[in-house]
Write a structure and sequence with these properties.
This protein is of the alpha/beta class and 221 residues long. It has 8 helices and 5 strands, in the order H-H-E-E-E-H-E-H-E-H-H-H-H.
């Protein structure tokens, strides 16, 4: 773990990166973000989950990162990403390449997760400290949207296992790896978009705005 901490969170902007990482970062930075005014069916959403050594993004370690896409209303089994950082212990360049590979995979699509402060906090720290990237994607937070969209099933922010249970997706025992969680989140997100369309929240832009509004209102009331 000490080696992983040293190489994953080294502190400060990186002074140098491998040439291939720099080229990939430049390609990512110069790429255009997809439009957010398309209907959900035409938008590629990237669902993200992480594994960490603890709940604190400022002090604990990012151990794994998983992602998959929902496009044309369907989960895309061939469009996934996974890295176990613990297997890269002591290999700083490999960590850099995997983080850059995730940026290329995500392709600036809107990201879907459960609990942005947790997931986004770890990712923002890793990208800043390893690659010098200020990671600020367009987020959709299921933790806040689900109680707004499915008040009959839970009217406040609940643990993810609650939603897994009420949607009949299996026993919510919390003992899943990041990729399994990503698949469950993707299935829940499919249900959410159906409910959202019924409320005329039918584009990525509107869903992102609704996510922000739900978070703000519930945090302040």
């Amino acid at each position: 773990m000490l080696g992983l901490k040293k190489f994953l969170f080294r502190g400060g902007a990186p002074s140098s990166l491998p040439a291939d990482v720099l080229a990939s970062l430049e390609a990512w930075r110069s790429s255009a973000a997809p439009p957010l005014d398309e209907l959900h069916f035409h938008t590629r959403y990237v669902v993200v989950d992480i594994v960490s050594s603890g709940p604190n993004p400022d002090g604990d370690q990012l151990l794994g990162l998983a992602a998959g896409s929902v496009w044309k209303g369907a989960i895309q089994p061939d469009d996934t990403f996974y890295v176990d950082f613990s297997t890269l212990d002591g290999e700083g360049a490999a960590v850099d390449r995997q983080l850059t590979a995730f940026l290329i995979f995500a392709a600036k699509a809107p990201l879907v997760t459960y609990n942005i402060p947790y997931v986004g906090g770890f990712l923002q720290r890793a990208f800043k400290e390893r690659l010098g990237v200020n990671f600020q994607p367009q987020w959709v937070d299921l933790a806040w949207l689900l109680p707004t969209s499915f008040e009959e099933k839970g009217h406040r922010v609940m643990p993810l296992d609650h939603w897994i249970d009420v949607f009949g997706l299996g026993a919510g025992n919390g003992r899943r790896d990041a990729m399994a969680n990503t698949l469950l989140l993707a299935r829940i997100f499919q249900m959410l978009t159906v409910r959202a369309v019924g409320k005329q929240i039918d584009t990525a832009s509107r869903l992102i705005d609704e996510s922000r509004a739900s978070s703000f209102l519930r945090r302040n009331h």
